[in-house]
Amino acid sequence: MSRRMRTYFYAVLGALGGLFAWQVSNVLGLSFTGAFYINVLVVGALVGVLIGLFIGITEGALTLNPVLAVKAGLVGGLVGAAGGLGLVLGEFLFQKVGAGVLGRALGWGVFGAMIGLAEGFVGRSEIWKPTLGGFIGGALGGALLELARVQLNLVTGKAVGMVVLGAAIGLFISLIVVTLSRAWLEVTSGKLKGTEFILDKFMHAGGPAIAIGSSPLKSEIVLPDPDIAPQHAMLTGDGAQFTVKDMSLSGTFINNKKIERAQLVNGQKIRMGNTEMVYHEKR
Questions:
Q1: Which of 20, 48, 118, 180 sits between 20 and 30 A of 57, alpha carbons compared?
Q2: Contacts of 173 (CB under 8 A, 6+ apart)
């Protein structure tokens, strides 16, 4: 899955989350208790759970990694629930300060930032990138949501607006991460051909290493190849480049040369089992 298609699927899953969120918010409304801002908080939390859940599972689904999908979906839903605070902020600015649509858009921006923050926790990019993308997507989607409510009837406008909101958050989370990514692996053969794994979070000196293998329980980058060991190789960053260390019996090959440990250079081909990848980096 190319980075462009990755962004497309983030938008689609976000839109599905928005569609389900519309159903939930439509059933609850904003008058199920006597405290208006409590109602806003609860509805916002439920909307955050659904949009965060759908966006969270995207990366795991695209890379055929069920463990990542479950983990990211749960984190996305839980942190997305905290995004309900953004809706309270937006309503306060709208109702009390007279900030109008801009106030609500800001509230949705905070909402989107929380979902992006969750994506940063479990993703492979630096946290600030998906958080920024979520804020931009939430603010833009929130403004379009309010516009749809005004231009269309209440039910249709809300439905269209929530779908656009979810799509915008998912799209900008992926778009910012992809556009600003500095290092990634592109799978050029095997079941995941075309998939790209972003490595930015692991490039920092002293940061966590990243395992590549066939087991979703033992590796962060999972390649469904029977000839790849459960934990086949380890990538370690030093702040400028990656070192790859072979941990298998069958070997890791760089440009068709078997290695035990080697520093990666832009454009090098890495082969494990029957799967080949190309390492990319931007300076």
A1: 180
A2: 10, 14, 55, 112, 115, 116, 119, 130, 133, 134, 137
CA–chain centroid gap for 265, Å, is: 27
DSSP H or E segment with residue 50: helix 36-62
- How do 221-222 and 210-213 pair as beta strands? parallel
- Residue (of 183, 175, 176) closest to 210 by Cα position: 183
Residue from 23, 42, 22 nearest 32 by CA: 42
pLDDT tens digits, 95-150: 766 666 787 788 889 999 999 999 988 887 889 999 999 999 999 988 888 787 77
Cα–Cα distance between 268 and 188 in angstroms, integer?
A: 12
Q: CA-to-CA distance for 49 and 37, rounded, in angstroms?
A: 18
By the 8 A CB rule, do 107 and 83 touch?
A: no
Question: Most distant CA pair in the chain: distance in Å?
Answer: 70
Q: Which amino acid is at 106?
A: L
Distance CA 283, CA 280 (A): 10
